[in-house]
Prior knowledge:
32% helix; amino-acid biosynthesis (chains A, B); L-amino peptidase D-ALA esterase/amidase; 15 strands; L-glutamate N-acetyltransferase activity, acting on acetyl-L-ornithine as donor (chains A, B); homodimer; Arginine biosynthesis bifunctional protein ArgJ (chains A, B); Arg_biosynth_ArgJ (chains A, B); 2 domains; 5-stranded mixed sheet; Ubiquitin-like (UB roll)
Amino acid sequence: MSVTHPAGFRASGVVAGLKSTGARDLALVVNDGPSKAAAAVFTSNRAKANPVLWSEKVIEDGRIDAVILNSGGANCFTGAFGFQTTHATAEAVADALGVAAGDVLVCSTGLIGVGDQSFRDAILDNVPPAVAALSGERDGGADAALAIMTTDSKPKESTIESRAGWSIGGMAKGAGMLAPGLATMLVVITTDADLDAATLDRALRAATRVTFDRVDSDGCMSTNDTVTLMASGASGVAADEAEFTTALTALCLDLATQLQRDAEGASHDIAIEVVNAASEDDAVVVGRAVSRSNLLKAAIFGNDPNWGRVLAALGTTDAEFDPYRIDVSMNGVMVCREGEPGDDRELVDLTPRATSILIDLKSGDATATIYTNDLTHDYVYENSAYAS
Amino acid sequence: MSVTHPAGFRASGVVAGLKSTGARDLALVVNDGPSKAAAAVFTSNRAKANPVLWSEKVIEDGRIDAVILNSGGANCFTGAFGFQTTHATAEAVADALGVAAGDVLVCSTGLIGVGDQSFRDAILDNVPPAVAALSGERDGGADAALAIMTTDSKPKESTIESRAGWSIGGMAKGAGMLAPGLATMLVVITTDADLDAATLDRALRAATRVTFDRVDSDGCMSTNDTVTLMASGASGVAADEAEFTTALTALCLDLATQLQRDAEGASHDIAIEVVNAASEDDAVVVGRAVSRSNLLKAAIFGNDPNWGRVLAALGTTDAEFDPYRIDVSMNGVMVCREGEPGDDRELVDLTPRATSILIDLKSGDATATIYTNDLTHDYVYENSAYAS
Lengths: 388, 388
């Protein structure tokens, strides 16, 4: 159900011919209201795709009618022609729906540099079929979730119900380039709660900060990431902001861990939990540094509890801690205690996919968890062959 | 010849039993003077091995008699016992040579957490044989270069002659964890020029800043890196500082590129040259960001000129440039021009091992080159099996 689960939304996913496989590659999500309040967050990469440049403007007034998303080409570094393609796409959707182009958000994902005339034609020619296929039923949301996939092995969807009478639905794609400041990640979240744009913006930023922003699969930040939240108000319920933020955060975490579990070529999902940090920033900095150690990630691929690589990585940060007092546990075994060898590393069983690294900085009471993956032969294979 | 090429030095490399292969694993380099001036630079990692903690003190007075180096164990995160091992090692060398322990620099490389009683015994028991084997001939330097190898496939040596009558010799080890702030890299450089410690320190910092510090093979920074420079003054020639620094830089670059060419599992040596940057710092920041993109490195392994991944990486930096004005060339083909697709990417031949990525930021006149490698199946294999 995902994005069509809350009342007031229709969605579709059609074949525009952008994917060489002939799979669905053009998705549309429409908010039928009565409210059109919305919020969005974008990649912090300075190299932004044309749809991001467009959509940053569209969201400024906190109101959108629809989001159109394509896979099969990033429309990034495609110059003025690429930007005109994005503009024309929004115009085509607006014409078909009878709304303003400035209320149509656009998202793309795929290879950077792809966005020529044939790309433009494929999208524009298939906006009418996408509009015609719009459905508020289960299939509409499911087709949209399929259409945004790239190297994802499966669609990612999530829903949450509130006893207060509103619900949230979401879909996501992303399998490589998962990194802070968002990942190659397109996410659309819908709710039938009645909330204004400012509240949606606060809730979305609070939720993404501790979920999508803490997935760091391979340290690479995308040019196209966009998370959009639309509220139709169709439930007629003005949700409590705190309750809504909590529910939204839970839904984002569910989608984020679905992304992690489907990361390109990964064989371990690694949760790096940093505790007793002097500040949350310190905990995040340390977690990220560890999550970016190729040496550690390769060791975990080989089921090798090489804790020295954890310490070598965190030693590169300027977070507050004494490196010779740190404890490190892997899957529950404290392999490093007070900066010295702890329990026997042979006790660590790294064969399960779910992997836990717990780092105790002993410098305060702040905590953060970073979600990453191991570095595998399949990662190298998939990413050396992506463009071909 | 390497470290024994300049007059006034003897070296040896013996089998202490630290390597399971039975290969040489304990090296000693002695300065017989008349001058004992020296300088050293160390890893900037806060997690420092015990020999680094010791050697940082030893070098403070700019004078050392000898350097002892072991492979087969990092003696890092081994606590007070590990530090006592380092101290005892220096004492043993000092006793055998009739010098002060505070003038003996100690280096280790190998697995973090290794440094128990058997490690200590192996080193201490083999200091006398290492002293007995000291030789100023070619074999002495060659044996030392072999004894510091870990996953290196071959020893790295270099020499330079000055017409002024002095020479420099150097040896290096390092194959993984090659990153800024030095790599898992032990380097010993000798010269028979007559220079005081302050001059050596200036020259060494100037040389390493643009050579070893710009090798970023896999983004991982070691806990043990040390580059030591000793001057015997045995040529009787007080070298011109500028000429010496130039020669030292050339020698360091030679050793640094030998490290790059022998990086674990690599199939491409990638020189990322950033030109027309607003500052040298900007050029380095951009080069490093690109050198750390696993996606780009995997693409180059697959001979895929995926320039979008260059732009996605540099967009994560705060260097001064307009991402939509940048040119990117790969092996001489300008695949991205003014932030748009440039010449046909099919023209790029990435089959040679030597790979060039040229990034024109069009923001000033500063330049820097970062040396990195591709991300390969062999890298993953070697680093997932290192501890076993």
